Amino acid sequence: RKEVEQDPGPFNVPEGATVAFNCTYSNSASQSFFWYRQDCRKEPKLLMSVYSSGNEDGRFTAQLNRASQYISLLIRDSKLSDSATYLCVVNLPQAGTALIFGKGTTLSVSS
Amino acid sequence: GAGVSQSPRYKVAKRGQDVALRCDPISGHVSLFWYQQALGQGPEFLTYFQNEAQLDKSGLPSDRFFAERPEGSVSTLKIQRTQQEDSAVYLCASSLAGGYSSEAFFGQGTRLTVV
C-alpha cells in the first residue's frame, strides 16, 4: 500500500467551479501535512500547510481528519491559472522531516 | 541565486555510463532531500540528509544509487551503470530546519535520459 494515496485525475472543470481533492495517508504517526502545486515541467511548490483545525487561504481550504487519516483541498471559484497538478504531502516520521508525496491529481480549468 | 540550484539541467547518458547530479541547497538549510519523478507520477523519496548525516536512504532503488553531502551543504547523487529505467527527473529540495513543519524548497531538477 502506498504511503499517500490521492484521487485519480484528471479533473476538468469550468472557470468558477468548486473542486475538491482528497488524500489518505497510511502512517498514523505522521505529524505534518501539506498541499504542493506542480506546474507542467516545473518543480513542486508549497501551496499550503494543513492544520488539524482546518485552514483557509483565499479560495483554498484545507482540512485534516486524523482519525480517518484523510486530507482534503477545496478550491472555490476556480481560475484558469489554477490548472496544475496538486500533490498531497505527508511527513515520514521515522526519517524526521522526509516528505512523502502522493502521485498528484491534475486539474484543468477551462473557460 | 537564492534558490536551490541543480546541475546539469539535462543529462543524456548511454546505458552503463555513470552519472553525477549536483544540488546546491539554499544557504543555511539543514535538511536536504533527493526525489525521483517519473513522467506522470509524483516525486518518489530517495534519501534525506540532515547536515552531513544521511539519516534515511531507504528510497534508493538499488546499490547503483549513492548520495553524499560531505560538508553539509552541496550534495551529489551518483548513479552507476545507468539503466533505461533510471530515466526520470531528479529533484533536490532543502528545508531550513529539522522540524516537522519546515517548508521544502525544490530545485528545477535534472532530467536524466538513458539511451
General description of the model:
- The complex is a heterodimer of chains A (111) and B (115).
- By secondary structure, chain A is mainly β.
- Chain A has strands spanning 4-6, 11-14, 19-25, 33-38, 45-49, 55-57, 60-65, 70-75, 84-91, 99-101, 105-110.
- In chain A, strands 2, 4, 5, 9, 10 and 11 form a six-stranded mixed β-sheet that branches. A five-stranded antiparallel β-sheet of chain A has the order 1-3-8-7-6, with no helix packed on it.
- In chain A, a hairpin with a 2-residue loop joins strand 6 and strand 7 (60-65).
- Chain B has 115 residues and is an all-beta fold.
- Chain B is built from no helices and eleven strands.
- Chain B has strands at 5-7, 10-13, 19-24, 31-37, 44-50, 53-56, 65-68, 75-79, 88-95, 105-106, 110-114.
- In chain B, the strands form two sheets. In chain B, strands 2, 4, 5, 6, 9, 10 and 11 form a seven-stranded mixed β-sheet that branches. A four-stranded antiparallel β-sheet of chain B has the order 1-3-8-7, with no helix packed on it.
- Chain B is globular.
- The model of chain B has no long low-confidence stretch (mean pLDDT 93).
- The A-B interface holds A 4, 31-32, 34, 42-46, 49, 87, 91-92, 94-104 and B 31, 33, 35, 41-45, 48, 50, 55-56, 58, 91, 93, 95, 98-104, 106-109.
